[in-house]
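Supplementary Methods S3. Input chains for the assembly prediction are listed below.
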Amino acid sequence: MGLLSNNLLQSQNHKTIMQTYTYNVKMTCGGCSGAVTKALSKMEGIDNVEIDMEKQLVAVSTSSVSKEDIFEAIKKTGKEVSPA
Amino acid sequence: MGLLSNNLLQSQNHKTIMQTYTYNVKMTCGGCSGAVTKALSKMEGIDNVEIDMEKQLVAVSTSSVSKEDIFEAIKKTGKEVSPA
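Predicted structure tokens for the full assembly:
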């Protein structure tokens, strides 16, 4: 096989594993949860952000961003945050 | 004069000019304003943060951080922001 075929095979074999990380974030209104959603959604590599206001939880799905980098981004919103 | 004296003179002549920059920031509860205050207060070089919830204004005093860098930090909170 030539180089092109090899590259195509490698591309097909490369599996993207989606991870979901969950954090406790103190949010008191729709503005709070909206800000966290917006801040995280803007980040490159973030696929989904889900907020549970009642449980004060933020679940972030990604296949390329580390749990720590997401944690730092949430801290930059000014919200109290801890891993759930 | 020796090198040390020169350095001391330069240090004494260096004037620190405090600037206050103001931004329109959409905040709906105490958690929103608290998050903006916390995010900005954590930044090195920020001397004071004042919030006017009624006017939806944030005033930031600094002698070393640029207006643009503060703007970017507010954007990272996920809040809608524009220069006032």
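The longest strand of chain A covers residues 19-25. Residues 5-11 of chain A have pLDDT under 50 and may be disordered.
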